[in-house]
Write a structure and sequence with these properties.
By secondary structure, the chain is an alpha/beta fold. Helix content is 46%, strand content 17%. The strands form 3 sheets. The protein has a 6-stranded mixed sheet with strand order 8-9-10-11-13-12. Strands 2-3-4-1-5 form a 5-stranded parallel sheet, sandwiched between helices. Strand 8 and strand 9 (350-357) form a beta hairpin. The two termini are 24 Å apart.
Length: 416
C-alpha cells in the first residue's frame, strides 16, 4: 500500500533541474519507497532511469573502487538513483566528479544527515538540494486511517497554523473525532511500518524492532561504542524530559558520560533524526548561542517506547508535554525555511515556540485544553515584540481575541 507523501509534491518540481537531490531522514521513514516513486515519475516522463542501492555490495564496490567504470555505467541513463548513499566511501567527492563531468540527474538517499551533510554537503555546495522525509505526518496518517476525516481536513483547514480562520472550524463532533485520531497518532507515532500495523501489540513489537536495530545498533556503531548502555539510558532520560531545557552537566552525571562524550552523543542523536533541539529566540544573536536548547523527539512513538508507556493519553500526566512535542514537529513541517525557536526571559516568562516567517514574527503556545486562556508569558511577549498575530494551539477550542494590537488566534491542534 502506497501512502502519498506530502513531500512528493515539492520534490517533483525539481526533477527537471540539473542539481542532484538528496532525500534524507530516519531509517524506516519510507525513503526507499519514496525514491522508487520518484523513479516511476521520471520513467513516465520518458526518462531512462537506473536504480541502485549501496546495500548491494557489488554496486557499492564499483562506486568505491572504480569511479570511471561507475561513470561509464551512469552515462547510459538520464537519471541515476542511489539508495543508502551513506555507505559510500568519499561519496561527496565522487558525486561531485560525476555531477561535473556528466549530464546525468543524480538522486541519492541516506538515513543520516551526519553523513550526507558533512561528507556530501561540503563537496556539493550549489550542486545538491536536500529534502528531509520524516515519518508520517498526522495528515498522512489520516489519509489511510480515516479517509473521511482526511477529506474533510484537506478541504477545509489551512496547513499553516497562522493562517487558520476560526470561522471555518468544524462542529463539536468532527473536532472530537479529529482529537481522538491525533491522540492515537501521538501514542504510536508515524513510522510507516508502525502506523500501518493493526493491533497495539503489533505496533509495539515493530517499534521495538526499530529501536533495537536503529537506536541501539546503528547509532552505537556511529559512536563506536562497546556497549549501548549509556546510549539507552540517555535516550530514556531525554524521553522523560521533552520540552525541557537540556542540562548538560546533569545529563553527564546521570549517564556516566564525560561532557565531551555527552555532546557527541546528542549530536549524533540529532543528526540521525531521533531528537530535535530547539534553540532560544533572542534579538541578540550572540546571547542566543550561549543558552541551552530544549529537546524534543522526531517521533513520539519511539519516545513512548523508550519509556515503556503506551497508556491512553487521557490517563497520563505528560499529555501536555506530548502535545507540545507534536506542535513543535508540526511547526517544523509548516515552516520548513524558518527555524523553530522558543522564548524565555531571565524572569522565566516563556513562550513555547517562535517562528520568523519572512517579515512576520509568530509566537505559538501549545495548550492542550478546552479552555480559552492567554497566559502572562504570552502577554509579555506581545508587549515586547508587538507581533501582528499570536497562535494558541488547543485541544478543541477555536476563536479570536485581541491583546493590545495583536490578534490572538485559538486553533485546535488536530486541524493541522
Amino acid at each position: 500500500m502506497y501512502v502519498h507523501r506530502e513531500l512528493e509534491k515539492t520534490v517533483i518540481t525539481y526533477l527537471e533541474r540539473k542539481e542532484a537531490l538528496a532525500i534524507v531522514g530516519p531509517r524506516q521513514a519510507g525513503k526507499t519507497t519514496f525514491i522508487e516513486r520518484l523513479s516511476e515519475n521520471l520513467r513516465q516522463r520518458g526518462r531512462k532511469v537506473k536504480f541502485i542501492t549501496f546495500e548491494n555490495r557489488s554496486d557499492l564496490s564499483l562506486f568505491n573502487k572504480s569511479i570511471e567504470d561507475f561513470k561509464a555505467l551512469a552515462e547510459q541513463y538520464d537519471a541515476v538513483i542511489i539508495d543508502e548513499f551513506q555507505y559510500a566511501s568519499h561519496g561527496g567527492q565522487k558525486l561531485k566528479y560525476l555531477y561535473d563531468t556528466t549530464k546525468v540527474k543524480f538522486i541519492v538517499s541516506g538515513s543520516s544527515s551526519l553523513e550526507l551533510t558533512f561528507q556530501t554537503g561540503k563537496y556539493m555546495v550549489g550542486r545538491i538540494l536536500e529534502f528531509t522525509l520524516a515519518p508520517f505526518s498526522f495528515r498522512e496518517f489520516l489519509s489511510f486511517r480515516d479517509t473521511e476525516l482526511h477529506a474533510l481536513l484537506d478541504k477545509k483547514s489551512s496547513r499553516a497554523p497562522h493562517a487558520f480562520d476560526p470561522g471555518a472550524s468544524f462542529g463539536e463532533e468532527i473536532t472530537k473525532r479529529l482529537s481522538a485520531r491525533l491522540e492515537e497518532y501521538a501514542l504510536y507515532g508515524g513510522y510507516p511500518a508502525v502506523a500501518l500495523s493493526g493491533l497495539p501489540e503489533e505496533k509495539k513489537k515493530v517499534l521495538g524492532s526499530i529501536a533495537d536495530n536503529y537506536l541501539l545498533k546503528d547509532i552505537k556503531d556511529l559512536l563506536r561504542l562497546a556497549t549501548s548502555d549509556e546510549l539507552l539510558l540517555l535516550g530514556k532520560l531525554l524521553a522523560g524530559q521533552i520540552g525541557g531545557m537540556v542540562k548538560y552537566e546533569e545529563l553527564s552525571r546521570t549517564c556516566g558520560l564525560a561532557y565531551k562524550d555527552l555532546k557527541e552523543h546528542l549530536n549524533v542523536l540529532e543528526k540521525t533524526y531521533i531528537i530535535t533541539m530547539t534553540k532560544p529566540y533572542f534579538t541578540n544573536r550572540r546571547t542566543e548561542l550561549s543558552k541551552n536548547p530544549k529537546v524534543y523527539f522526531l517521533d513520539l512513538g519511539l519516545r513512548n517506547y523508550l519509556l515503556s508507556d503506551f497508556r491512553p493519553l487521557a490517563d497520563r500526566n505528560d499529555i501536555g508535554a506530548i502535545m507540545e512535542n507534536y506542535a513543535r514537529n508540526l511547526l517544523e513541517r509548516s515552516y520548513p525555511s524558518s527555524p523553530v525557536k522558543y522564548w524565555r526571559t531571565k524572569s522565566k516568562a516563556e513562550v513555547d515556540f517562535v517562528v520568523e516567517d519572512g517579515p512576520f514574527l509568530y509566537p505559538f503556545e501549545a495548550k492542550y485544553s478546552p479552555r480559552k486562556a492567554v497566559g502572562r508569558s504570552l502577554h509579555s511577549f506581545i508587549g515586547k515584540f508587538h507581533p501582528e498575530k499570536a497562535i494558541i494551539l488547543t485541544k478543541d477550542f477555536s476563536g479570536i481575541e485581541k491583546v493590545k494590537q495583536t490578534e490572538v488566534v485559538f486553533a485546535p491542534l488536530s486541524y493541522f
